[in-house]
Write a structure and sequence with these properties.
homodimer; alpha+beta; five-stranded antiparallel beta sheet; 18 strands; about 35% helix
């Protein structure tokens, strides 16, 4: 089916009727904020609808489906791979008004949320009730849970607690043709039929629009202890992470920063960093008071034995908060290092391969195309940032070459080209490095099963 | 595509050439053990192949695919829904020779296993190394991990640790046409492309033959504490489970038995049970020594406050082992209660709905069609056993009517028709109670994407 890529005046009228006049945007000034996400990609949509219910979403989809109009579901636009960018024109459906948070249950350890609910708000509401929603992407203060499900968002706590997938019980999804389906089950276990709910998790808006989510929750851990350890080399820091696991610990976080990352946020840290420090680890453990204390003591000992220059425990919630604020601000802070362009990758490899990966990265880094690495070392998930000086910022061939080398190395080491950001527009040309042509063909045919007309986020993930 | 349902002599020759003479069975006496699983269903396959490598599996599939021969992957045949039964004739591929267990890693918390590896053997090897593979279906002493992945097997520890899905990192799958693909990633996190690995988990052999599995492991918990609590009513016991969660505990197990279940295994228990006991809970907590002790004390207190007649802690590993042996032997022990036929269901509902479910079951139970209930109450997963006296054992209409009522109730209470056993032949007529016709159509089209000729386990899950 050929997509029309053009919304006529008559269509605008029909779409407006569905959501109401204030909730269909068509004026260029109104569309601009929807033309980009947190990647460098941008494209103007022809219209943006802000529905308030699953029924409205279905009506919008039914119209777009019958008319062959491309549709892009969008949360907060915090994605880093262009997943929400209206590359082929058409309609963006913003889910931000569908932000209910309800039915938090201590007995069932569940809550029901709308896709537009802000992840951080869900976490706060859970914590207020003594409950815990673990996934914590760095953008949690503004990203939405629908986007988290669509990208299977991770975060620092994934080491112990897993990713968004592990907290999705049931989904309500509006299919491309406007039919509303319920996938998964609110029961703790269900093996009825094929597991289409998990196929939708991480599907980046290719399979439908998520209109409702039942999340699994945990009881809030009684205590969290936060350690920071400075190392004389990045290799030693990563080796320290491996030693934690060898000692039988699974920390809730084990964050790594190399020297350049450290230098980007130095002033924001709640402690002094000496000149000999080439790398920082943030290690968090949690559990009951006794368990957290025990694990913190063991982690301190292991990190000291691994050769840390200094291991200290954050003394209170204020220091902790300041530390994490600095960590979550790292990605934007890199922009202040004076380079003209930043290209961010997020490879993920088995932990045992991290040192090999790091040495590879150090080997290809050069002054005019420097590599800054930080990330969720507890998962082997390294955020590799290629930083380009002004004279190289436009050299797409150079960039492509370096990025491809990094991804090839990740796959060679048993890893993946994306640990948590997704494919979108940014990595679709690299996906064949990881997935065989047969697997890609299978993925396309599953996409077709859900969206035979191909209107949902067209040409994302794999080119059409 | 019409399936031929008949393996000619010429075909037998070709199949034999793939696996070698001793590993292709065609004599009726050799086929009988493969004609049934742990359900009541049976059908004779035309041949059974026992390949030793993924390459052999692919060659077998290529032949069957080109000739339209139905194929049934099979592990230990411990499934309870007829998933491994050769209902339409054709070839059973037994995976038991592909039972390697290797690459156990403390740093990566992974191991690689063949589909024929016995789940209990994987667990023992992991434990020997201080590692932990949590899923523990009652058949763990003989069931295979390939079958566990194909059915997304659960078990008693799912309460805290989740199900097989949560431990599958990467899969090697032979597709229906004989092409070998790798799905998922050995990295701790991967969001590259659509999540086809999780679509295969729980797909009951409909999408391909699993030939290799990378499992996620955990460090072995330092200590396990096991409590048993007797209650004067089943309702109070289930209420006790809810109270554990309200108190912020997530036990690793919370097993429930009603009076009839108790009576079936009474002699095997390592303690005396008074006449006033109508129900038994087994509650296990684990973690560090301190954490396990703390949680055991809290659980004891909560269960006592919930009105338990008696709460006691198992004193040592011997009592624990005896208790679990009795529990795992419960399903076969039911057969000794004197009824002529047992029909087993495994509904799963939100925990908060368990008492309502139980009262519903008590309401429909009658002497000639009694209902015995036990199960993983911590998950809301109740194994409901319909027990029929001789005069009713053949009354299919009566049985269908009762089973349908139970399943309808489960769905009405927000639950599922199967928590961990799957659909297979046993529940395919009931799946429409839970999945809408649109969802079923989607599932069929995903099946078609993987297996366009429909040779893989035909007519299971949904009739064709």
């Amino acid at each position: 089916v050929a997509l029309r890529h053009q919304i006529t005046k008559g269509l605008i009228k029909r779409l407006r009727k569905v959501v109401g006049r204030p909730w269909l945007l068509t004026a260029p000034a109104d569309l601009i904020p929807y033309s980009r996400d947190a990647s460098g990609f941008s494209a103007m949509p022809e219209a943006v609808a802000l529905p308030e219910s699953a029924e409205q979403v279905c009506e919008l989809l039914a119209i777009c489906s019958s008319e062959g109009i491309p549709v892009y579901p969008r949360g907060a636009g915090s994605g880093t791979v262009g997943g929400a960018v209206a590359e082929k024109g058409g309609l963006i459906i913003s889910m931000v008004r569908m932000n209910r948070m309800e039915n938090f249950s201590h007995v069932d350890l569940l809550c029901r949320v709308g896709p537009g609910a802000v992840t951080g708000a869900i976490q706060k509401e859970a914590e207020r009730l003594g409950l815990f929603y673990p996934p914590d992407p760095a953008s949690l203060a503004f990203c939405t849970i629908g986007g988290n499900v669509a990208t299977c968002a991770g975060g620092a706590r994934a080491v112990k607690y897993g990713v968004t997938r592990d907290y999705v019980r049931a989904l309500e999804v509006a299919l491309a043709d406007g039919c509303l389906v319920r996938l998964g089950s609110e029961a703790a276990k269900s093996v009825a039929g094929l597991d289409l709910a998990r196929a939708v998790v991480g599907s980046e808006g290719l399979l439908g629009v998520i209109t409702g989510i039942t999340l699994r929750l945990l009881p809030l851990p009684q205590e969290v202890r936060t350690l920071v350890a400075l190392f004389g080399s990045a290799q030693m820091a990563l080796e320290g992470v491996s030693r934690l696991f060898q000692a039988g610990l699974v920390p809730r976080c084990a964050e790594f920063m190399d020297r350049m990352s450290l230098s980007a946020i130095l002033e924001g840290l709640p402690f002094k960093v000496g000149h000999d420090a080439e790398s920082l680890l943030i290690v968090e453990v949690d559990g009951s008071r006794a368990a957290a204390a025990e694990d913190a003591a063991l982690a301190s000992k292991v990190l000291a034995e691994a050769g840390a220059l200094d291991v200290r425990q954050m003394s209170g919630p204020r220091d902790r908060q300041q530390l994490w604020q600095a960590r979550r601000g790292l990605s934007p802070a890199i922009k202040r290092l004076g380079y003209s362009r930043k290209v961010s990758e997020d490879v993920c490899i088995p932990r045992s391969a991290m040192v090999a990966m790091l040495e590879f990265l150090q080997g290809i880094s050069r002054p005019e195309a420097a590599i800054l690495t930080f990330g969720h070392a507890g998962d082997g998930n390294l955020h590799v940032n290629l930083l380009l000086t002004q004279e190289n910022a436009g050299d797409e061939a150079l960039i492509h070459d370096i990025v491809e080398k990094i991804m090839e190395k990740s796959v060679e080491l048993g890893g993946t080209i994306s640990g948590e950001h997704g494919i979108g527009m940014a990595k679709r040309d690299y996906l064949p490095l990881e997935h065989s042509s047969r697997v890609l063909a299978l993925e396309r045919s599953v996409k077709e099963a859900f969206d035979p007309k191909g209107i949902m986020n067209p040409a994302k993930m794999f080119r059409q």
